[in-house]
Write a structure and sequence with these properties.
Layout lengths: L1 E6 L4 H17 L3 E3 L1 H4 L3 H5 L3 H17 L2 E5 L5 H12 L4 E5 L6 H4 L6 E5 L5 H12 L13 H14 L3 H13 L1
Parallel strand pairs: 1-2, 1-3, 3-4, 4-5
Helix pairs in contact: 8-9
């Protein structure tokens, strides 16, 4: 499997260790990563390039999305470019995992009704299970993806319980169902 990783280049100064953790977890799961445009390039590097080099950089990004099986986006630091890359991946039918570690989910994608989007808040403790669940989904190993609407009160409770139990919301719900099935 091949994954395209994106995140805010400006946000690197605040979240680089998180970016690296995500990439390393995916690599440990046998995923080939396209990440050098985020981990090895600075904002200044891009700004100082000629127009032709910026266009070539953009073409490499587009080629990376086209050749990947899915896209992973770390969105804790807002970025229009990351939103553009997510949209491009969705337009090409690629599954997208949107991760954020603080604040609210990205407004344009968090409540988007597209079964290819998974949007999750994570901590260092929950990241592995979120990525593992997403890889099962991408590989078709997940049983069934089930989406439904809940009230804001229910959503707040679910988020609180998931955080308290240090698991993703989906894992918390599955555990409730499994417990009830016994």
């Amino acid at each position: 499997m091949r994954a395209y990783f994106t995140a805010s280049i400006v946000g690197r100064k605040y979240h680089l260790s998180k970016y690296q953790q995500i990439v390393e977890l995916l690599k440990s799961k046998g995923v080939e990563m396209l990440d050098e445009h985020i981990l090895n390039v600075s904002e200044k590097d891009i700004q100082l390039q000629s127009r032709e080099k910026r266009l070539a950089f953009h073409q490499r990004l587009e080629d990376g999305i086209n050749s990947s099986d899915f896209l992973i986006a770390e969105t804790s630091f807002p970025s229009i470019s990351v939103g553009y890359e997510i949209s491009m991946a969705l337009d090409r039918g690629k599954p997208v995992l949107i991760l954020y570690s603080e604040g609210d989910p990205p407004a344009l994608f968090a409540y988007h009704e597209n079964e290819k989007i998974v949007c999750e808040m994570y901590t260092p403790e929950t990241l592995l299970s979120i990525i593992t669940d997403f890889l099962h989904f991408v590989r078709g190993e997940a049983d069934t993806r089930f989406t439904f609407f809940i009230s804001s009160k229910q959503a707040a409770y679910l988020a609180k319980q998931a955080k308290k139990n240090r698991v993703p919301k989906s894992v918390y719900l599955r555990n409730l169902i499994d417990k009830d099935m016994v």
